[in-house]
Design goal:
The complex is a heterodimer of chains A (315) and B (405). Chain A has 13 helices and eight strands. Chain A is of the alpha/beta class and 315 residues long. With 405 residues, chain B is α/β, with parallel strands linked by helices. Chain B has an eight-stranded mixed beta sheet, with helices on both faces. In chain B, helix 8 packs across helix 11. The chains are: A alpha/beta (315), B alpha/beta (405). At the A-B interface, helix 4, helix 5, helix 7, helix 8 and helix 9 of A face helix 6, helix 8, helix 9, helix 10 and helix 11 of B.
Chain lengths: 315, 405
């Protein structure tokens, strides 16, 4: 799940995980940017580098969450694949871990995607996959292609050897049919443009584009005829005042002027939304809309959004 | 740098109005006072992604230019149309004059540039290494990856470029005047809020670290200096990376060795520049819970690092509606009118537009109040939301006016 900053990609990622769990799936929800946004939405203490159950779907599924930390992932990786017990500690002492996770090109992203890869192919004792689905609250649209494609770049650096093997395996998973990148946007010019740019970037990197999810869509209280009436001046302050007279507010031409002004500003914003919706209609992938939640996002809002995603076929 | 204290004891800076000390009233930020103060030499706009940082930086720069200052604005990743409006169509990594910007006879001017991260890095290498060595570094695969994709490179290069622009700004003779007397910087939308602050220091501490010495060891000869620990680490690295990658890294580090001194010096200088009196940090936010939380984090980090924080800009705020009527009253009147004639129903719609706006505004005000309660000393300015996106100089002027209203 990617999206421009401020579009609510974490919220949508969580809603998708809940939606999948509601259908009985066991889902791992990963965070890779250390923001602890998932913990905040579920209202639980900050997530450690450890998969823990944080929610149960109505259909018997579960949501596990994990905040992937690059340093911990590196130590785990070294221990798991290279059995570097003492040497792992020595690497840490010599600043190698710090170097690798902060300065070395792309290593951070390799570790983060590598952990997703590991969780995705992990199997239980009975031979089945540990998780039915993994939802990643990924970096924003501006960085997403580079993030998912980082292993390809690493493969360019390491021509042979274990790193190359690992990088190729992760790339194969990211480019495979089982990976889809969903893009969250809002109906504003810049986020929509970034979404289109990201789709082009993802496709040129052979990464699968999933759905475009338009978040925070506001239903206008004004019907199109009402907007016309305001725009054309047929609905004027006097008419509004006459209607107000029938309510507890009472007649007020002054209020009529104020309400008209607000209505006109509202109509302009609606029109801009409509324009952006038209731009998105040109995208050859399914566009899903999620309604704006005016009361703020809480657990019940997340379940509503999850239901909405499912009803629109995102599963 | 002037090196003079910008505040007199007991008084706040010139651009803070009211609210200092007691925390009773909210301190408001006088942006024009900040922009026109000749001691303000650098303004850094920081904040999380999607809050309008780039637009704010551009609007501040344009307004300062139109008030007579010679300004250079460094943007990181502007939206295409905004970039075009400032004439930023070429990515040549040098500031270009923005046509039509500048005071009418006020002597101000505006130059703008967009950061080219790789090019900036290449230039640093070229400036500090001999031609042969530079060539060796620039073609090293490890360097190519580092300069184009390392997650912190953009932050580091943004600060590097700021340092360069600052040096360039002062390059003119005292009589001829400086090339720029104000530099406005946009910052990259980092995943961790203040990577751009950390990058230079992190780099210099790593360059002093044992790991670099370890990597340099083979290039420096005798293995007798290698302790048992070194051997373990080298073996581990060989096992994990493979000999080819390790040798690429070692070649790179060896070639870079001579540059390290210069890098460290520059990193330290940039950090000092950010802390200096002539610098002002503006934290940019939007009135939603996530952005305000990030803003609080920025403010705390900047304070902790002794960075000169000028204040908080809250963008896209819902301003006071034209009609004075509270939300619940509007909603209940709307319900009365729902069953009425067509006009009544349309008025019900208008009342609901109003009610929604009042609710949104109330939530935003609450967020701003909580922020001020936790950070009473931080001067704040709110910028009302415009209906559309800004993509021309006129729009930037409008934002500039709203910033200073």
């Amino acid at each position: 799940m990617t999206g421009k900053g401020g579009t609510g990609k974490t919220t949508v990622a969580v809603a998708l995980a809940i939606s999948l769990a509601t259908r009985g799936r066991k889902v791992l929800l990963c965070e890779v940017e250390g923001r602890q946004g998932i913990a905040r939405l579920f209202d639980v203490p900050p997530l450690p580098y450890e998969e823990r159950e944080i929610g149960v779907g109505h259909g018997g599924g579960q949501v596990y969450a994990l905040a992937i930390d690059a340093e911990a992932a590196l130590m785990e990786y070294l221990a798991m694949y290279y059995k570097l017990g003492r040497a792992g500690k020595a690497l840490d002492k010599f600043g190698v871990i710090d170097f690798a996770t902060t300065i070395a090109p792309g290593v951070r992203d390799v570790l983060l995607t590598g952990k997703v890869y590991e969780a995705g192919r992990r199997r239980d004792k009975d031979g089945g996959y540990s998780y039915d689905a993994i939802v990643v609250d990924a970096p924003p649209t501006g960085r997403i292609s580079r993030f998912l494609n980082v292993n390809n770049e690493v493969a360019g650096l390491a021509k042979v050897g274990p790193i190359r093997k690992q990088a190729d395996a992760v790339t194969t998973m990211m480019q495979g049919r089982r990976t889809a990148v969903h893009l969250v946007t809002v109906l504003e010019e810049m986020p929509v443009q970034e979404t289109l740019d990201a789709i082009a970037d993802l496709r040129s990197a052979d990464l699968g584009v999933g759905n475009v999810i338009v978040n925070q869509v506001r239903q206008s209280p004004l019907t199109p005829p009402a907007q016309d009436a305001i725009g054309s001046g047929r609905l004027d302050a006097a008419a509004i005042s006459a209607s107000l007279a029938k309510t507890s507010i009472g007649a007020s031409a002054e209020l009529g002027v104020g309400l008209l002004e607000e209505g006109a500003a509202h109509a302009v914003r609606q029109e801009l939304q409509t324009d952006q919706r038209k731009v998105l209609a040109g995208v050859d992938t399914q566009v899903i809309e999620l309604a704006y939640v005016s009361e703020g996002i809480d657990m019940s809002a997340l379940y509503d959004l999850a239901l909405s995603l499912r009803e629109q076929g995102l599963q | 740098m002037t090196g003079q204290a910008r505040t007199t004891p007991g008084a706040g800076p010139a651009w803070v109005r009211g609210g200092t000390g007691g925390g009773a009233g909210k301190a408001s930020l006088d942006v024009d006072a900040l922009l026109t103060d000749p001691d303000t030499q650098i303004i850094v706009c920081c904040g999380s992604g999607g809050v309008g940082k780039t637009t704010t930086a551009a609007a501040l720069a344009l307004r300062a230019a139109e008030q007579g200052r010679t300004v250079c604005v460094l943007t990181i990743d502007p939206a295409r149309r905004l970039a075009q409006s400032m004439g930023l169509t070429e990515l040549d990594n040098v500031p270009r004059p923005v046509a039509e910007a500048g005071a009418e006879g006020g002597g101000g001017s505006l130059d703008a540039m967009m950061l080219d991260m790789k090019r900036t890095f290449d230039e640093v290498v070229e400036a500090h290494a001999s031609p042969e060595k530079a060539k060796q570094i620039l073609s090293n695969p490890f360097y190519v990856a580092l300069s184009s994709s390392f997650a912190g490179t953009q932050e580091y290069m943004a600060m590097e470029k700021l340092g360069q622009l600052y040096d360039e700004a002062g390059a003119g003779s005292a009589r001829a005047g400086k090339r720029w007397d104000l530099i406005v910087v946009d910052t990259p939308p980092s995943r961790s809020a203040l990577d751009f602050l950390d990058a230079p220091e992190r780099l210099s501490s790593l360059l002093d670290g044992r790991f670099i010495k370890l990597l340099l060891a083979p290039a420096r000869g005798p293995a007798r200096f290698l302790s048992a620990g070194f051997a373990i680490v080298t073996n581990a690295l060989n096992k994990v990376l493979g000999a080819q990658v390790l040798s690429d890294v070692q070649t790179f580090v060896a070639a870079f060795d001579t540059l390290f001194g210069g890098f460290r010096q520059r990193a330290d200088a940039t950090f000092a520049l950010l802390q200096a009196e002539g610098t002002a940090f503006l934290v940019v936010a939007a009135p939603d819970p996530d952005a305000m939380r990030e803003a609080a984090y920025f403010v705390e980090r900047l304070t902790h690092e002794d960075m000169p924080l000028a204040g908080l800009v809250v963008n896209r705020v819902t301003d006071l509606p034209a009609a004075m009527l509270d939300a619940s009253e509007a909603e209940s009147a709307a319900r009365t009118l729902d069953s009425g004639a067509e006009t009544d129903q349309q008025v019900a719609g208008l009342l609901r537009v109003h009610a929604e706006r009042m609710l949104v505004r109330a939530r935003e005000q609450k967020l701003k109040r909580s922020f001020s309660a936790a950070h009473p000393a931080v001067a704040t300015v709110s910028v009302p939301a415009l209906a559309g996106d800004v993509h021309d100089l006129e729009g930037l002027r409008q934002i500039g006016a709203l910033l200073t209203a």
